[in-house]
Amino acid sequence: MHDDDEETLWRERLHDYLQSGKIQRQFCRDRGISGVALLKWARRLDIELPRTRSPHARPLAPANLHPLPPPTDFEEALRTRNFRHFLPSDTRRAWAGGEWGRLLADARRMGLSLEAYGRLIGIPPATLYSWRKRLLKSGDLPDETPFVASEPEIQAAGFASVVIQTEPQTERNSADAIDLTCVTSDTDANIASLPRNVAITGNFGPALVEVVLRNGRTLRLHTRTNFFLIEKLATIMERAE
Fold first, then answer.
1. How far apart are CA 128 and CA 126, in angstroms?
2. What are phi and psi of 60, to 5 degrees?
3. What are the sequence ranges of the domains in the chain?
4. Which residue has the higher pLDDT, 64 or 196?
5. CB-based burial label for 63 (10 Å; 0-12, 13-18, 19+)
């Protein structure tokens, strides 16, 4: 085979690969060709290939070989915090430096650790820590002061809101209340004395949330109540007749 014929053959194969939307391994296996040879000819013909391709990805035109999605995709993903629609599990994406800072700033706005934020948006936490280290070294790290979003910003993010009821302390509430200081890990509450509706008291302020248990009982508790005490009381109330 002449060099010109071989070059034409590999140029057609590379064109077919870009149009197929398949990952390199799958395309080479289906065609019975070498993946090393495919990369070799891509470099020789000066054709830029994506690092990997998703089996469900759209075909790439030969004139549009850049692996990054349009900026509008990133803006939409950042607004909804849903990167999975253009970050399949078998795709490695080249992130721009400006996007690093915006993602880290978004994690700060949500008040999440990088581990939790990475799990939320589908990016490995190690990648986020690597970006943070690089930006910290270059002095471009976004402000990490704790941030509390306003109600319009929370609604714009697309999350369901949590309603916290504020009730003034009444005589009925005081009579039906169980003091948290009397319920510890070493003390069992008296099941017979538990009313149908229980309010947990303590020096935590007036904000209350209600938890409806599986047996129909309602547990009213303060927002800063210790989780283990809540779990203990909920278990006792669910076992009560």
1. 5
2. -100, 130
3. 1-65, 71-156, 165-239
4. 196
5. exposed
